[in-house]
């Protein structure tokens, strides 16, 4: 019953978007998703824990000014990030779920799932700002967080993941993906993975630490 209500709300939100409503008022705690382009073939959909490669532009809903453009950063390379673990704002973690490679979406994110009542000065986000993102997803790589991956990564089968093991795993995944990547980004992803997971700071990610997010579904 509760779920049904949710879907109905989403459907209504989509309808009002499509009818070309100019004034954008997002419900306070929901992300509105409009699929702008859906590729004909889709063999894989993004899920929590996947490593995504995407471009996204961010606009303020209030005046449609652009505050972020991944195309002008990092020499125009699409961004890599792990979905659903807080590497991006919560609204984007939600908005990019179940997306196909090649899919484009326009999403509206309420402040509660973005920068909240304080905003974010460095990116010039005012308080209580509703944000609009135009997203294009390029690639989905099975991320280091997927549950199936743990034993794949754990080469020496000691039930914990060393830095080298994760490093190697990421390299293999990126190679398979076939896209040229900045080594610095690889390093950043690696550092980030340890910062977020190695709770006791012993330099290894234990099975327990690895599973921290398993029960924290969005
Ligand atoms: C932002 O919203 C909060 C609660 O919704 C409100 O208390 C606060 O005054 C707002 N801030 C601004 C600058 O509008
Ligand atoms: Ca190991
Ligand atoms: Ca640890």
UniProtKB/TrEMBL annotation:
Residues 1-21 form the signal peptide. The lineage of its organism: Eukaryota, Metazoa, Chordata, Craniata, Vertebrata. The gene is FKBP7. Gene3D superfamilies: 3.10.50.40, EF-hand. Residues 185-218 form the EF-hand domain. One of its GO terms (cellular component) is endoplasmic reticulum. It catalyses: [protein]-peptidylproline (omega=180) = [protein]-peptidylproline (omega=0). Keywords: Calcium, Endoplasmic reticulum, Glycoprotein, Isomerase, Metal-binding, Repeat, Rotamase, Signal. It comes from Anolis carolinensis. This is peptidylprolyl isomerase. The keyword Metal-binding applies. InterPro entries: EF-hand-dom_pair, EF_Hand_1_Ca_BS, EF_hand_dom, PPIase_dom_sf, PPIase_FKBP, PPIase_FKBP_dom. Residues 49-141 form the PPIase FKBP-type domain. It comes from the Eukaryota. One of its GO terms (molecular function) is peptidyl-prolyl cis-trans isomerase activity. Its EC number is 5.2.1.8.
